[in-house]
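Hey, resending since the last one bounced:
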Amino acid sequence: MFGGLVAKVSMSGVPFIMVVSQDLKILKERYVSSLLLGDAAQAKQTVIDAQSRGLDVHTVYVDILAYSQSVLGAMWDKGEINIAVEHLATVVALEIMNELRTQASQMRKSNGLRAVVTPVEGDTHTVGSRILSDFLIIDGWEVDFMGGPTPGKDLVEFVKIRSVDMVCISVTMPTYINNAKSTIEALKLINPSPKILIGGLALNSSEIELNSLNCDAVGLNSSEGVTEARRLFGIADEDFTLEEHLSDLGSRIKTTRLEKGMTQQDLANASELDRTYVSALEQGKQNVTFGAVLRIAKALDLSLKPGGSWFNPDNPDQEPRL
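The structure tokens again:
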């Protein structure tokens, strides 16, 4: 333990945002710079400083740790850094996650459900699946995190001998979508079969047909993954904060947009809203008016009624609603 980290979460177990964007920008830049210099101690100190400013565990995971991994991954892809720097960044991130998860999970209340979380076969990128695993643990789940890509056959055998309610599969690269599909098909043959949640960066591509995955739910990010996991098992979300509801609404809008093959600009044009407004809304960082929701619903060919909710895939006869 490197000490000093204090994980803050809401009563529902899902964290809330307390830091202004300018502070966050500075902290992100400082964290990335520390990793580029190979200064793990300074990177960890940045997280400690972030929390002293009120940054919650969710934002540390998503907007500092995951963001920085993405930045360094892009730099490696361009040949600007070597793989050793990226590996160090991953180790530092995992150490920080260990500390945050341990502290935040002390406040959790078990929901009695068990999930298996794993990167799909062949996909060696593990940070995203680790974040989902930690968010589920904080939310009250018992989690078996596989730690690395698991061959479909081995995963099926593991699930058969383990009392598992849900299997979460992470896919960061479109190359491995077919591996995910074959694994899902094999899991569906188990009797009784667990619920299957799939997520990862690959699903943000408009080239991926989400409806073809034959899973029970899709989470385009870790926060949405927890929301969808709750939905699958009927776990109440009445304790959600405003920020959490905005994040959930944004994720659902993005999911629906991608399913319809629309870009953000397409949605902005159809709803007569600015593209930057749509982008901020999808990220859960934009407070939204009822008029804007109506415009977006119309642009996505959805209906909105008093007391309405998003279309429930478990009830295909229900009229699509926001």
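The chain has a mean pLDDT of 81.

Sorry for the duplicate.
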